[in-house]
């Protein structure tokens, strides 16, 4: 009888515990409705690394406005690593008081007053890549702090994450942001090691698909234990990933090196064009306060930006490659297409493209051109000149300089 009473007591306690909420499930998903086109903005790391402070960030916001970048579609001013100070007695993070004496809330208010949004950086590990306090164990507190400051974008890195599994760690910060109650774009930055394109779409708004970019057009920087990749190397690493991208969830091949000095103007133009073709986030990484005319023209080319920001949200793909000349295509809204001739070689190459013999088909998204049946007008996205029509009677001829592109928008004007 005593055993029966004990068993009944244990069962009743278990039922009471279940009724009291032990079936609680956390919401591990991102905020929906954000980043419906690839995010556009600026990040401090490529040019300044750890040398960040509030005056410089304010100046970048001012320059984004005065340069025309804001009007061209750039939105985010993102502070990368090394803004951190210490945690207080309750565990809340605070900015470095010497670098950010006015505090992050005041800085966010300033950036917002310019019609822009403020982004910040943290790390899933115990320390950031720059040795500052990471968010491990403090995810919900940090998310509350970011929301209170008015942060709009979080880049979340993957240094010092011993023993963590990427998907679980990023789900934790996604849940923390959701709990904090402020819609914040989540940029997953775990370098593509754990195939974030497979689990990232529900968790974040973009995910790094490779390791870090290196400021060169076609090279690899070997750091011993890890490598950084040139523009062309990163481009190659995107193969097979386009099926995972779309509105609200983007492959991220890392930030732009346009205007940072190592690339020629031709290479800057090719770099920017191919990131637009990839539907990649366009996050500038140069000093916006001292841009040359050529750099400004690259970063604010509205024709190329329109290809990036096309609401169809389909990533471009490589159609063919021969002797260093690649042909890329990207489906656009309304039956339009972007077509790019990329010259990876060191000498100029001539293009003689027969439209009828080169119908373009996107097998993944079941879209295709029909040059034989339809009429498309051609516009060069860089010299901004009309180039006639894509017809069966006349091939497209052009010369592509070394490390450069010829980029066209094909606008569907007549269906037969």
What does this structure look like?
This protein has helices at 2-22, 45-48, 54-66, 69-72, 104-113, 139-149, 166-180, 196-203, 231-236, 265-277, 293-299, 302-308; strands at 40-43, 76-78, 84-87, 93-95, 117-123, 153-157, 185-188, 206-208, 220-222, 227-229, 250-252, 282-284, 317-322, 325-331, 337-343, 349-353, 361-362, 367-368, 374-380, 386-390, 396-400, 404-415. It is α/β, with parallel strands linked by helices. The chain folds into two domains: 40-308, Aldolase class I (TIM Barrel); 317-415, Immunoglobulin-like (Sandwich), CATH 2.60.40. α10 (265-277) runs parallel beside α11.
Please give a quick description of this structure.
This protein has 12 helices and 22 strands. It is of the alpha/beta class and 416 residues long.
Q: Indicate the CATH class of the largest domain.
A: Alpha Beta
Number of strands: 22
Question: Helical stretch count?
Answer: 12
Total number of distinct structural domains: 2
| Overall 3D shape | globular
Q: From the coordinates shown, what is the CATH architecture of the largest domain? A: Alpha-Beta Barrel
How much helical structure, as a percent, in the residues?
Answer: 25-40%
* Major beta sheet summary: 8 strands, parallel
Strands of the biggest beta sheet: in what spatial order?
11-8-7-6-5-2-1-12
N- to C-terminal distance:
88 Å
Per DSSP, what share of the residues sits in E-state strands of 2 or more residues?
Answer: 15-25%
**Low-confidence region ranges:** 1-21
Judged by helices, strands and strand pairing, the structural class is: alpha/beta
Radius of gyration: 24 Å
**Mean pLDDT across all residues, rounded?**
93
At CATH level 3, the topology of the largest domain is: TIM Barrel
By CATH, the superfamily of the largest domain comes out as Aldolase class I
């Amino acid at each position: 009888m005593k055993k029966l009473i004990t068993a009944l007591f244990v069962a009743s306690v278990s039922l009471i515990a279940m009724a009291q909420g032990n079936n609680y499930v956390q919401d591990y998903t991102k905020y929906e409705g954000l980043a419906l086109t690839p995010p556009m903005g600026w990040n401090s790391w490529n040019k300044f690394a750890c040398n960040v402070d509030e005056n410089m960030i304010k100046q970048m916001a001012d320059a984004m406005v005065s340069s025309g970048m804001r009007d061209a579609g750039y939105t985010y001013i993102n502070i990368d690593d090394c803004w951190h100070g210490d945690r207080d007695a309750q565990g809340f993070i605070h900015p470095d008081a010497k670098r950010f004496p006015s505090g992050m809330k005041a800085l966010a208010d300033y950036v917002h007053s310019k019609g822009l949004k403020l982004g910040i950086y943290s790390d899933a590990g115990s320390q950031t890549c720059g040795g500052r306090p990471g968010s491990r164990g403090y995810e919900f507190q940090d998310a509350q702090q970011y929301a209170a400051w008015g942060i709009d974008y979080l880049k979340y890195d993957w240094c010092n994450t011993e023993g963590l599994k990427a998907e679980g760690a990023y789900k934790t910060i996604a849940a923390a942001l959701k709990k904090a109650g402020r819609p914040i774009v989540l940029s997953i930055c775990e370098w593509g090691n754990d195939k974030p394109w497979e689990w990232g779409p529900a968790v974040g708004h973009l995910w790094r698909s490779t390791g870090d970019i290196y400021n060169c057009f076609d090279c690899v920087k070997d750091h011993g234990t890890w490598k950084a990749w040139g523009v062309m190397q990163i481009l190659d690493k995107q193969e097979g990933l386009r099926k995972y991208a779309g509105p609200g969830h983007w492959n991220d091949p890392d930030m732009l090196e346009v205007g940072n000095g190592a690339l020629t103007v031709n290479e800057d133009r090719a770099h920017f064009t191919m990131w637009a073709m990839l539907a990649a986030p366009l996050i500038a990484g140069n000093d916006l306060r001292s841009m040359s005319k050529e750099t400004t023209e690259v970063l604010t080319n509205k024709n190329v930006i329109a290809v990036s920001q096309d609401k169809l949200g389909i990533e471009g793909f490589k159609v063919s490659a021969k002797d260093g000349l690649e042909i890329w295509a990207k489906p656009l809204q309304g039956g339009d297409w972007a077509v790019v001739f990329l010259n990876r070689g060191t000498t100029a190459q001539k293009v003689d493209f027969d439209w009828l013999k080169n119908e373009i088909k996107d097998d993944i998204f079941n879209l295709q051109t029909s040059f034989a049946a339809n009429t498309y007008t051609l516009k060069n996205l860089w010299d901004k000149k009309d180039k006639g029509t894509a017809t069966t009677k006349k091939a497209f001829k052009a010369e592509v300089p070394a490390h450069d592109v010829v980029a066209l928008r094909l606008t569907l004007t007549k269906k037969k």
